[in-house]
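Protein: Phosphomannomutase/phosphoglucomutase
Species: Streptomyces mutomycini
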Amino acid sequence: MVADLSQLVKAYDVRGVVPDQWDEPLAELFGAAFVQVTDADAIVIGHDMRPSSPGLAAAFARGATARGADVTLIGLCSTDQLYYASGALDLPGAMFTASHNPARYNGIKLCRAGAAPVGQDTGLTEIRTLVEQWSEHGLPATAATPGTVTERDTLTDYAAHLLGLVGLSGIRPLKVVVDAGNGMGGHTVPTVFAGLPLDLVPMYFELDGTFPNHEANPLDPKNITDLQARVLAEGADLGLAFDGDADRCFVVDERGAGVSPSAITALVAARELARNGGKGTVIHNLITSWSVPEVVRENGGTPVRTRVGHSFIKAEMAEHGAIFGGEHSAHYYFRDFWNADTGMLAALHVLAALGGQDGPLSGLLDRYDRYAGSGEINSTVADQTGRLAAVRAAYGSREGVRFDELDGLTVTGDDWWFNLRASNTEPLLRLNVEARDEKTMTAVRDEVLALVRA
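Structure follows.
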């Protein structure tokens, strides 16, 4: 019977419910297909703390070795730790995680050697085709000489690489609360932060893929309320929240207020430009704040705007030789990290910036957080195309309004803009609005939502 992969293979990764949508025998086929499509003679595999992750990773390794590839297992790791291993060892990699999804989900994030992305247009479609064929007919003949399996610990080397990219030696002592959400931040933070002048207050560091305290998705405001309360209770300088696979990092200031990822993007962009002599290209997606390209230009850099999604950011990073890239979803990409995303490196930049001056984080970030934003608002819509057309028609006759369709529909006025785009995987329209003041932002937001939800 041919496996139904239509709901499992996404634009950027593999993700679905275990064992309903996929299981270890299917993971084995993915391992074999990955080796064939990448033509790899060796790969590296890591996994998160979900109960199903070790078994799926081991099955993937069996499929890879059956095709003759040697496998390096790095065990429990964050996604950016897997990218580090792929880059440092120059091997294609597979990370078993479903990021912030609920416990019953699992998935695979794949990359070529040097952490180059594998997505729908860069190999994932071919992998899916092979898995579908083999699920019906069985694997072709195994390699004459099966590959070997070795284990390797990369956590210490990963930490050293990150710390070598940010100057932290002279920072003042800081009190920082970290909410790992029972995800992989509980594994990586103690090693990365060891030796820094930090009073670390850990929250939910126990690795538990059932997520007993809250979803490991800090993008949802309800999942950082514990962190916000703890920052205030401890009188901490800041709080950090990592998602399940710890590749994204969210920041809370000393007042317990969530910090816009666009403000973090602008801050890190300024620091990376300074580190590169005030020159360089910075990639940002089209829903980041106006403040991001402004700060990039003010610091001597060249901003480049792109679509939402890590495969687009990474492609632009490579094409432009960019030094840094940021998304409003709190993914941060670095040239010196193989163009891959690492929330941990962004967190270290925040610590270095805060610890390098005497003021509070809120004051430091004022220069980077200049506008009123709505955050991303999702609406369940059956006819996405029809609603997008209705919004465009409503604004089409207005004087001075500009449109572009780089990703969904972006409409820009004199002192506001909004982007409305369809989800790739769900019947949702996603709205982001920004304006020069809160009143204007609220008015635009409410008007667009009324059209979307009509």
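Remarks: The chain has a mean pLDDT of 96.
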